[in-house]
Design goal:
The structure is a single chain. The chain is mainly α.
Length: about 180
């Protein structure tokens, strides 16, 4: 019975944010994803390389919309994505013949690695999963996937977050680097 009571919840809903917060979150995510997308579509698309992956959308929510969250800090953003990319590529290379197993191992192991390294960043789980299910374009990159798109894309988004999140007086980013 206590087990089922846990599912009832009971906490309060998150507080409403002001329009200024909404504005700066929108501007940051537009510019951050815009920069990564521009590099991808205008410079790299013809090369077979890539700069944008789906998990960056979730990172944008954290680093532009939840700037104070421990999960949004630079250590988490960079470490979470990079370590998860390594885990994901490794899982695909070792277990790619069994994609269901490779996907499960990639995400579960990336969570464990992020916990152990204090770099928990939920989009990192998606980064690991993309390494397994991303198709030939991702698979052909091998460990280059860790550098590009993952590391360079995350660094680009971080640079924008550092600039944009510190423009308004009521925002500060990062809360900590380590």
């Amino acid at each position: 019975m206590n087990y089922l009571k846990k599912m009832k919840g009971g906490g309060q809903s998150p507080p409403q944010v002001g329009l200024q917060e909404v504005f700066w979150s929108w501007i940051g995510s537009f510019l951050g994803l815009g920069a990564v997308s521009l590099i991808h579509y205008k410079i790299l698309e013809e090369t077979g390389l890539m700069m944008i992956i789906g998990s960056f959308g979730a990172s944008a929510v954290l680093i532009y919309g939840a700037v104070r969250s421990p999960l949004a800090q630079p250590r988490n953003l960079l470490g979470g994505h990079i370590l998860s990319a390594i885990v994901g590529v490794s899982a695909f290379q070792w277990l790619g013949g069994q994609p269901w197993l490779a996907a499960s191992i990639a995400v579960s192991t990336s969570i464990a690695v992020m916990h152990l390294t204090k770099t928990l960043h939920p989009p990192g789980g998606a980064t690991a999963l993309i390494a397994v299910i991303g198709g030939d374009g991702v698979h052909n990159l091998g460990y280059l996937y860790v550098v590009m798109p993952v590391a360079l894309g995350a660094i680009t988004m971080l640079a924008v977050a550092l600039i944009i999140n510190n423009i308004p007086k009521n925002r500060k980013y990062p809360e900590s680097w380590y």
